[in-house]
Automatic annotation (TrEMBL), chains A, D:
Organism field: Advenella mimigardefordensis (strain DSM 17166 / LMG 22922 / DPN7)
Protein name according to UniProt: Dihydroorotate dehydrogenase electron transfer subunit
Positions of [2Fe-2S] cluster binding: C253, C258, C261, C280
SUPFAM superfamilies: Ferredoxin reductase-like, C-terminal NADP-linked domain, Riboflavin synthase domain-like
Keyword annotations: 2Fe-2S, Electron transport, FAD, Flavoprotein, Iron, Iron-sulfur, Metal-binding, Transport
Binding site for FAD: R82, P83, M84, S85, G106, T107
Automatic annotation (TrEMBL), chains B, C:
Broad class of where this protein is predominantly found: cytoplasm
InterPro entries linked: Aldolase_TIM, DHO_dehydrogenase, DHOD_1B, Dihydroorotate_DH_1, Dihydroorotate_DH_1_2, Dihydroorotate_DH_cat, Dihydroorotate_DH_CS, Dihydroorotate_DH_I
Gene assigned in the entry: pyrD2
EC number(s) reported in the record: 1.3.-.-
Name of the featured protein: Dihydroorotate dehydrogenase
PROSITE patterns linked: DHODEHASE_1 (PS00911), DHODEHASE_2 (PS00912)
Any Pfam family hit: DHO_dh
Length: 294, 312, 312, 294
């Protein structure tokens, strides 16, 4: 894909303050110093960050992600960037959102950002979800971080005219996030949790079968969890429903250059032939039936 | 106006900055104007298709990274049809990087990919992951000589062997490459390294060992580039740990004619353009009219002046 | 109670932590209780008096340092009279480190300093500054064999040759050392490196090249320690970039029986004691009753489970 | 020198908060996390820092120094410590003082420290000044940073019953520091500066000769400057006055272990035989007549 451009990237501009939004419209992916609008805790483990996006980042699609340069501290110096899914984008408000779990050096650094600070973000990256235009009922099954990735898909599907059922699973009810956001977008939300004792795979399976019996599901998505992947793979096969999964892998470049982020995939459904694909560039969203459980 | 052109043998580059093999791909064209680069260097390919090493393939340290990728390759036909075609849309010369299992295959692959659009071929004789314990052609002067000879016999396209820093006698190997007709040498690839997770007792990359890259490695690889530049007459292309114009200038001062930027492309895809801009600014500030004046311009400390007193 | 003792050949150490040669001296006894160390290793001496390299001798990077000290030495007599006498006040075994210009001199010096109180002799066959371009005995398996043989013939004191990471074939050299009767090997000394000040165009150390040390080097030197530990039957003492218990444990997991702490002593003279305390705490947390259980305990990634599907 | 001790260094204690002062009395040199009491600018280039010292550091002597672990920031990570002369010590108040020029990565880090912060300082280190008990008149000639090193010597000399004349030289009068402190201690202060045009070597030389004619100088000290060293060396030789100089060199360990900090010295006055000595351990204060100009 050749990008038509006479634009000469001026990096002094790029490197300068985040208040300036350099004109990089010619490039679909930008390394953009974005201004933080807010970065608040949603529960004990997760933060919700809203930034002012440039034109390129405002074109982000559900399932795509950004590669974030996490600020260092005296002790932590995260050398590489960290991938984060698009949690929301609002082109008219000019905002891009992330929902992230604070767990290691990089995300601890992200958590230190305050309103007005600068976040160097590279993106949007990867291939997002591709829901067939004819889709009538999307089932999203998400746990933990997977929620951040799936949430923006709901509005997109609803905009297509589809019904969306979001099954949210978490360790405890307090860790269920995005319920309001999903309901607000018009999705039906089913929340389950380990402490309530209704999040085991057999129970989810029964739930999905009931749902499908009521309003047939014709697109299934999930993210991250191995046991959810297994469940959806077997159901999608049995019920003849297509679907996609968003995968994760440790990344170097996030733009398809380093081949660090590979995972094995089947060439096609049921194929015995495997090959590595780059999560960052060939994905992170892949056909459900080609993913390998691990 | 600073003149930024450099000559690498018969090839003139608009400026001395290019990517290091394996750290650049088509995706970069969606982020920066790759027409501003001195050259384009692609990921090493083999003649056949290969999958590379199992994941996890990467670990991160404070100032460097450990990669154990192997040489995943879509093969020579894909390269000629897809990769070369893609880069022919752009102006900088395209440098292909190849690897092979035998001396003959190095020659054959060089011949095969000498298609219009390929303006130099890097010989990756140094990939630390491909051969057991990193023992590759580039560990040995004789094997290096043979590989370069086979490639030179097979094609008119300039040949740039890329040295491995895991070799002790890098100067000897550089001389062997020159002797065999190399048009330039790239110094260098990555040092073999490893890391273990003390919680799980597992190695941080599945392959146990990988190549360590990034700024922390610069002083070692700079030393090697300097040693080679002092020994050979052909151009040396410095590579290792470059993330700023100062780093690139350090390599030029040490004797390199051009530089390759690797891991820094991952940290910031704008790095190479920034390096070019800042080299120009540096030259302007210091009234240097041609970037090539920096090449080999390192000075030396004067011996301590003992002011009439005899030294010991 | 965690048992921290380790055996290095015939020598039993109270714990596996000792200083690296050249990074420890009498001054340390004024800051920490050096009786808590596993062993005491002194700076390399030569038989004659030497001044070492001209200053500047040091440059600092983000996570490592470049030292070009040479081997300043007060000579063997001073060592025996002053240094050994000083350390005999303390309980940990004293390990002398020696260097010489010829194989015979290595033997002579080993014999000379085999005085009561010296409980092992490290052979610094790897000092990167002493010989031109760092070419030292330790670059060559045959020379290493000869040096160790000469020393073993000259003394009953255990001999620990210290490998140079600048050698490509470190495993071959380790095997040669073992063959010659080495009681343990230290892996390893510092990699040769350099840096140039882009303002003055002067090298950052007067000698142009020096040894690069510190945490940034750990993944490379750990790899070498692991390769050697897999090849030899004698104990390997790991050295390079250790600044925490986790670093030390990484070396133990990779197969080292003990470790040496170098540059970190400069950053914090308490490092070695901290490492000892934290290794004990680590073992307690994980119910490891003897530190030596960690030696070589690295596990391996299982090949990707393809769940019934044939691998490619 | 054997330190009598049954004390087992407990590093968990050392590594803990700076508010605690671990009992390390048995060791003459400590790695001590000291609390910052103040750290204020004295002019555009210099800061004055006061810390709460432990028992070991309160025993510091003029001419000795500390090796300071300078805090890092997101961009700067000074890996090694930085040597700083003792500028003042008050055992009864429990304070140790530094006067430092903010110039590079390390000192920029030091400058970020605020009251209540922790400074990991190693010391006291090196051999300080040794003024013969019989000294009647000490001449101190200092410029720039040298001032920090010489200042504490004034009170020490005055305590010995000597008269002290301090000649302070600087680029401009604003950069003359410690005048009050020296006057307060009882020293005569002569301030010269480049902008006033009275700081050239020939003028200083004339000044010193006049001073010596009035009240014979019997001990001369200086610090850092090569041209001041030259001047004092020739005057000390001609006038038969002994003296000392405090030297600087880039350091690794600062405790005599690494041999990074050497400078060439004469074996004795006028000797042609040179050898390297460690500034950190054999100095930083050396006999004036053995120092080499550079
Ligand atoms: C495409 C994609 C989208 C993601 N979206 C989100 C999201 O929206 N919200 C969220 O909370 N998390 C998300 N993650 C996971 C997130 O990238 C990791 O939590 C984060 O990198 C951890 O970095 P750290 O330094 O805090 O943790 P550390 O554990 O200290 O990281 C160490 C190294 O491992 C890598 N790493 C650790 N966990 C992961 C992981 N799960 N995936 C990839 N690399 C990892 C880090 O990038 C770093 O290089 C996503 C991952 C991918 C690949
Ligand atoms: C015994 C001694 C006492 C000193 N006392 C004082 C004092 O009281 N006040 C004061 O302002 N300065 C003093 N200095 C100088 C002070 O150590 C340096 O200014 C400081 O190290 C600079 O560090 P930086 O990172 O800010 O500068 P940079 O220039 O970034 O330092 C780079 C490297 O060079 C070293 N370095 C730079 N200049 C010197 C120097 N002059 N001496 C030794 N190493 C240097 C640094 O330690 C560091 O390793 C003293 C130096 C010595 C040796
Ligand atoms: C992810 C990755 C992949 C690489 N692949 C190749 C390769 O295919 N061929 C090659 O010659 N070098 C390869 N290298 C080495 C780089 O070209 C370069 O020599 C090395 O990274 C040192 O430069 P740096 O420190 O700037 O990264 C690779 C490096 C990285 C980080
Ligand atoms: C200042 C300095 C001096 C050294 N001198 C010697 C020496 O005399 N003999 C020796 O075998 N190694 C010497 N070394 C190398 C160290 O013993 C050690 O092998 C190296 O520093 C790597 O360990 P580190 O990363 O923990 O510092 C020296 C290292 C430094 C930093
Ligand atoms: S992270 Fe580099 S190819 Fe995916
Ligand atoms: S700084 Fe290490 S000996 Fe002086």
């Amino acid at each position: 894909m050749k990008i038509e451009t006479t634009f000469i990237a001026d990096n002094s501009e790029w490197a300068s303050q985040c208040s300036r939004q350099p004109d990089k419209l010619h490039f679909p992916i930008t390394e953009n110093p974005a201004r933080i609008l807010s970065n608040a805790w949603v529960n004990a483990e997760y933060k919700h960050m809203v930034v002012a996006g440039d034109a390129a980042s405002l074109a982000a699609q559900p399932g795509q992600f950004f590669h974030l340069k996490c600020p260092g501290t005296e002790v932590d110096q995260p050398y590489l960037r960290r991938p984060m899914s698009l949690y929301g984008v609002n082109p008219s408000a000019g905002t891009v959102e992330f929902l992230y779990k604070v767990q290691g050096m990089g995300t601890r650094g992200l958590a230190t950002l305050a309103e007005g600070d600068c976040l160097d973000m590279l993106g949007p990256l990867g291939r997002g979800f591709e829901i067939p235009d004819t889709t009538r009922h999307v089932l999203m099954v998400a746990r933990g971080v997977g929620l951040a990735t799936l949430t923006p898909l709901a509005s997109a599907a609803i905009a297509l005219g589809a019904k969306v059922t979001a099954m949210l699973s978490a360790r405890s009810p307090e860790l269920i996030m995005s319920k309001e956001r999903l309901t607000g977008a018009g999705a039906d939300v089913i929340a389950v949790s380990d402490t309530e004792g209704n999040s085991a795979v057999p129970e989810l399976e029964a739930l999905i079968r009931r749902l499908h019996a009521q309003t047939p599901v014709d697109f299934m998505t999930t993210c991250g969890s191995n046991r959810l992947l297994k469940l959806l793979q077997s159901l999608s096969k049995e019920l003849g429903v297509t679907g996609q999964i968003a995968m994760e892998q440790h990344m170097g470049c996030a733009v398809g250059m380093c081949y660090a982020c590979v995972r094995p995939f089947r060439q096609s459904a049921d194929s015995e032939e495997l090959s590595y694909r780059r999560v960052c560039w060939d994905g992170p969203v892949f056909p459900l039936e080609e993913a390998l459980t691990w | 106006m600073v003149n930024t052109t450099v000559k690498i043998g018969s090839l003139e580059l608009a400026n001395p900055v290019m990517p290091a093999s394996g750290t650049f791909a088509e995706g970069m064209a969606q982020i920066i104007d790759i027409n501003r680069l001195g050259a384009i260097v692609t990921k090493t390919i083999t003649s056949d298709k290969r999958q590379g090493n199992p994941p996890p393939r990467i670990a991160e340290f404070r100032n460097s990274t450990l990669f154990s990728i192997g040489i995943p390759s879509k093969g020579a036909d894909y390269y000629i049809e897809e990769t070369v075609t893609f880069y022919r849309q752009y102006t900088p010369p395209l440098v292909a990087s190849i690897s092979a299992d035998s001396i003959d295959q190095f020659g054959e692959l060089a011949a095969k990919i000498s298609v219009p659009g390929v303006q130099a071929i890097e010989a990756n004789i140094s990939c630390p992951n491909l051969k057991k314990n990193g023992q590759a052609f580039g560990m040995d002067a004789e094997a290096t000589y043979q590989v370069v000879r086979a490639m030179k016999a097979a094609t008119q396209v300039p040949i740039w062997p890329k040295m491995t820093p895991n070799a002790a006698n890098i100067v000897e190997i550089a001389l062997a490459a020159q002797e065999a007709g190399a048009d330039a040498i790239v110094v260098s690839n990555a040092l073999l390294a490893m890391a273990i997770d003390v919680d799980t007792f597992l190695p941080k990359v599945a392959n146990v060992m990988g190549g360590i890259t990034g700024p922390a490695m610069k002083p070692i690889l700079l030393r090697m580039a300097h040693q080679c530049a002092q020994a050979v007459d052909i151009p040396v292309i410095g590579c290792g740990g470059i993330e700023s114009a100062e780093d690139a200038i350090e390599y030029l001062l040490a004797g390199a004619s051009a530089v390759q930027v690797g891991t820094a492309n991952f940290v910031s895809p704008n790095t190479m353009l920034q390096v070019i801009n800042d080299i120009i600014a540096f030259c302007e500030r210091r009234d240097i009219s041609h970037v090539s004046e920096l090449v080999g311009a390192m000075r030396h400390h004067e011996p301590i002046r003992f002011e009439g007193v005899n030294s010991f």
